[in-house]
Structure formats: structure tokens, C-alpha cells
């Protein structure tokens, strides 16, 4: 902005008008940019995220499939979910989809297989986020939030889809098994989750950064699933640390939530951090 002033020779000696403070100009420009990004024009580069059903029903014990792999992921950039009757954690990349049953080995999902819960990202313009070596789960989330703030986007107003390819250490993945009895809640199932630890691991993390505020319809914060480069391991990410710098791809999206049918199970308070977030300390 200073260069523009020099070029057009604004100043008291030419115009008789006091020259604006450069800091004021930056604030003015910042406010204009914020208004533009908040407008319809500023949203043109965004894609959308389709979420099939509310998270609260899944956590309350409703594990019946509501949509197919093909319907949820066939035209998506990336996605995640869980299979019908908790048959495995799901990860999808460019329309190719795997599920990870309790033995921890990914299997290719068939188009007609059904999901109890699914989230898929569609369209939008990719952004690129440099991530430093040594960042863990919380560090990745913090870096993403700083990027959004720097680009004048409030993380409480959007959903971000994220893909990270690289080499990691101290990786902990989980998957869940089918419920042991009718009416068992997801919290009870997760108490017996199968965990797989890796000192070194190479692969792809995909997932979503949802707003922190949630009534139970969405899973707040950062939610990532993983699949290894050789497709021999995967699942829900419980912890990982970057072994080298990488550049992550992200998409800033609008949420399209497909609501429940009448009669779906009501929500109870959910401790998402304990059930879905990173695990620290002794495993």
C-alpha cells in the first residue's frame, strides 16, 4: 500500500490533505477483505461437505446403515465414516474407499456396502498449508486454525476438509468391533476399541475440522482417519507426530447435513474429546 502512495504522490505538500497513517490503511484493507470473504462472492471458491445423519444418533447406539458407499463417496474428494453395525472405520480418497475391521487391515469397500455414518467433501478450491516437523495432533489443529485466521475465516463458521500425506511417528490408530448386545452405545463399544501403535508409519490422513460448538449433530474439532501407503493398516487416528515437514491440502467448505428420520434416538451429553480425540501418555 505504501508503494501506491509514493506513485500517486499523495501528501500534504501536494493535496493539502494530511496523509493517512499506513496502519490505518492496512486496517481498512483488512476490513474490506473480511467483508469480501464473508460475502457471496467470497464463498464462490468453497465446496461443500455432506454429512449423512447426526452424530448423536450414532453415539446413542443407532448403527443401522442409512446410505451406501457409492452414494456417499463416489464423487467426493475425500471422506470418512463407519460401516453399518460398526463393521469398521471408513476412509475414502478420490472415490476409492476402504473400511478397517477389528483386525486393523483395510479392505476395499463395495459400492453397495452401507454406512451408519459418513462425511464427504465435494468441490471447492484447494488451499495449501505448510506443516512443520514435530507437529502432533493438537499442533496440526492449531496450525490449521492459524491459517484460517490469517485468511479471515472463522473456524466456527465453516467445515474444513484436510488431507496430509507423509511420514509420521508415535502413531496410534483405532477401530471398533460390532456391538455385543442390542442398545449398546458407541461409548461402551469404544471402551473395548482395538488399538494399533506404530513407531514409524507412512501414509495419508484425511478428515474434517468442524466448529468447536456442537449440539451433538456434529463431532466438534479435528477428526482424522488414516490409511498407510501400502494399504496394510488404517483406522481412526488417536495420535501421530510428523517426522518431516509436509504441505497439507485443505478445502474450506459449507456443511450440508442430512437430518434424521422421525423416531431417531435422542442425544445425550457426549464427551467427544475422550471418545474421538487424541490419547496421550501410557497406552
Explain this structure:
- The chain folds into two domains: 2-43, no CATH class; 47-276, 60s Ribosomal Protein L30, Chain: A, CATH 3.30.1330.80.
- It has helices spanning 2-8, 12-15, 22-38, 55-59, 69-73, 137-150, 186-190, 272-276, and strands spanning 47-52, 67-68, 78-83, 89-93, 96-100, 107-108, 114-122, 127-131, 159-175, 194-210, 221-228, 234-242, 246-258.
- 22% of the residues lie in helices and 37% in strands.
- It is built from eight helices and 13 strands.
- Strand 3 and strand 4 (89-93) form a beta hairpin.
- Strands 1, 2, 3, 4, 5, 6, 7, 8, 9, 10, 11, 12 and 13 form a 13-stranded mixed beta sheet that branches.
- The termini are far apart.
Keywords:
283 residues; alpha+beta; 60s Ribosomal Protein L30, Chain: A; 2 domains; 13-stranded mixed sheet; 8 helices; 13 strands; 22% helix; globular; disordered N terminus
Give the number of helices: 8
At the fold tier of CATH, the topology name of the largest domain is 60s Ribosomal Protein L30, Chain: A
> How much of the polypeptide forms β-strand, as a percent range?
35-45%
Kindly provide the name of the CATH class of the largest domain: Alpha Beta
Total beta strand runs: 13
The value of Rg in angstroms is 22 Å
> In the residues, how many domains can be counted?
2
Amino acid at each position: 500500500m505504501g508503494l501506491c502512495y509514493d506513485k500517486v504522490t499523495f501528501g500534504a505538500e501536494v493535496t493539502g490533505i494530511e496523509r493517512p497513517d499506513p496502519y490505518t490503511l492496512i486496517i481498512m484493507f483488512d476490513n474490506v477483505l473480511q467483508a469480501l470473504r464473508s460475502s457471496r462472492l467470497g464463498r464462490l471458491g468453497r465446496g461443500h461437505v455432506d454429512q449423512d445423519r447426526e452424530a448423536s444418533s450414532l453415539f446413542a447406539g443407532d448403527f443401522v446403515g442409512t446410505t451406501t458407499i457409492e452414494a456417499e463417496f463416489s464423487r467426493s474428494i475425500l471422506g470418512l465414516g463407519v460401516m453399518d453395525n460398526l463393521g469398521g472405520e471408513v476412509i475414502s480418497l478420490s472415490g476409492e474407499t476402504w473400511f478397517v475391521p477389528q483386525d486393523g487391515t483395510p479392505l476395499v469397500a463395495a459400492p453397495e456396502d452401507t454406512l451408519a455414518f459418513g462425511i464427504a467433501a465435494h468441490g471447492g478450491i484447494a488451499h495449501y498449508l505448510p506443516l512443520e516437523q514435530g507437529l502432533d495432533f493438537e499442533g496440526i489443529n492449531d496450525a490449521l486454525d492459524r491459517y484460517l485466521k490469517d485468511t479471515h475465516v472463522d473456524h466456527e463458521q465453516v467445515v474444513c476438509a484436510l488431507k496430509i500425506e507423509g511420514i509420521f511417528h508415535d502413531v496410534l490408530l483405532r477401530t471398533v468391533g460390532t456391538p455385543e448386545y442390542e442398545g449398546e452405545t458407541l461409548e461402551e463399544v469404544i471402551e473395548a476399541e482395538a488399538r494399533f501403535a506404530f513407531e514409524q508409519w507412512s501414509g495419508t490422513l484425511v478428515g474434517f475440522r468442524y466448529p468447536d460448538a456442537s449440539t451433538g449433530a456434529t463431532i466438534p474439532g479435528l477428526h482424522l482417519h488414516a490409511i498407510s501407503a501400502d494399504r496394510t493398516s488404517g483406522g481412526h487416528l488417536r495420535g501421530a507426530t510428523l517426522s518431516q515437514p509436509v504441505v497439507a491440502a485443505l478445502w474450506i467448505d459449507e456443511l450440508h447435513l442430512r437430518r434424521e428420520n422421525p423416531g431417531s434416538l435422542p442425544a445425550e451429553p457426549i464427551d467427544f474429546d475422550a471418545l474421538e480425540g487424541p490419547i496421550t501418555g501410557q497406552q
